[in-house]
Amino acid sequence: MWTGIPFTIVMSGIGIIALAGIVVNNNIVLIDTYNVLRREEAMEVREAVLHAVFLRLRPVMLTTITTILGLLPMAMGLNIDLFGGQILVDAPSSAVWTPLAVAIVAGLAFASVITLMITPCLLMIGESHKDRKLAKQDAAALIDGSEQSSPG
Fold first, then answer.
1. Which residues cross the membrane (predicted)?
2. More reliable by pLDDT, 143 or 23
3. pTM of the prediction?
């Protein structure tokens, strides 16, 4: 594919599943922080979104950086032989593990940006849509109430 590493469906698939778990967890924690700020701190939507991103930036980035740094040797095809005391490049076993590591490293780098930029935008859009819907319902209720009270 892009990296010159052959795409193996099993190991790349396992990497994508592991990646999905990390990304979903990051987003759940971000959205939960937002909900807590809205409910308990009574913050406005924009302020709660920005504050939630500020509070979750460090944990998301630490998760991303440590995972990427931990998997980078495997993604580069390095194999450490503990018994022989050697570091091998492109060893036969790295052909199995490299696609898994590349899937997680590339996906996590991309998904962390999405978590910190797109998720907050979607939260704001969702709240804006909800507010407009409530305003329409309130307007409809006022119209219905005034029609029923007017003499017919």
1. 6-29, 60-80, 100-126
2. 23
3. 0.74
- Asked if residue 36 is part of any domain, the answer here is yes
Given a contact cutoff of 8 angstroms between Cβ atoms, the answer to whether 146 and 140 are in contact is no
Q: Is residue 110 part of a domain?
A: yes
What are the distances in angstroms from CA 149 to CA 33, 34, 102, 119, 142? 45, 42, 68, 45, 11
Domain hosting residue 54, numbered range: 9-126
C-alpha pair distances (Å), 97 with each of 7, 58, 84, 121: 11, 29, 20, 36
Looking at the structure of the chain, the number of domains it has is 1
- Per-residue model confidence as pLDDT tens digits over 98-150: 889 999 999 999 999 999 999 999 999 988 777 777 777 777 777 776 666 55
Examine residue 94 and state whether it is found in any structural domain, yes or no: yes
Other beta carbons within 10 angstroms of residue 50's beta carbon come to 16
75 burial level (CB within 10 Å; 0-12, 13-18, 19+): buried
Domain contains 46: yes
Cβ partners under 8 Å of residue 127, min gap 6: 45
pLDDT of 57-111, one tens digit each?
A: 999 999 999 999 999 998 888 888 788 888 888 877 778 888 899 999 999 999 9
